[in-house]
Amino acid sequence: MGLKQDSKIIIRTNKMIHFILTSEILYLHAKNSSTYIALNDGQTIKASRNLKYISNLLGDDPTFYSPHRSYLINTNFVINLISVNTKFKIILNGGEKIPLIQKKRLDFLTKYKNLINNYLSNDIK
Fold it and tell me: What is the DSSP letter of 33?
């Protein structure tokens, strides 16, 4: 996880081709054989590709993290982690609640802690 120079991915939908800055992606959600790409401006793009395909377009971008098999989040938009009835949710800037599966909780906390530490050390310089 961490900040990276902005790049674009190209997504084709039924009606057009979208050029999306990766920094504008809030999260991706897989549903059936489609992937919904939620952007930080409130727009959602329905791609007729699966999450794995779009994840491959993003490459090894450390900004993106998969807290659940159906989601990929942009960690730059994480604001909270909450526990609801022993289940954890990641809260994003827009108020979206993304599930965090139990077996990834410690991994997420460790990576997110490292992201915060890196951000703070770069901010101080």
Answer: T
Query: At which residue do the structure tokens 């989601």 appear?
Result: 71
pTM of the full predicted structure? 0.83
Q: Report the alpha-carbon distance of residue 112 to residue 94 in Å, rounded.
A: 19
Q: What is the full DSSP assignment across 16-78?
A: -EEEEEGGGEEEEEEETTEEEEEETTS-EEEESS-HHHHHHHHTT-TTEEEEETTEEEEGGGE
CB 9 within 8 A of CB 22: yes
What local confidence, expressed as pLDDT, does residue 67 receive?
Answer: 95
Whether residue 43 has pLDDT greater than 60: yes
- Give the pLDDT confidence score for residue 35 in this predicted structure: 96
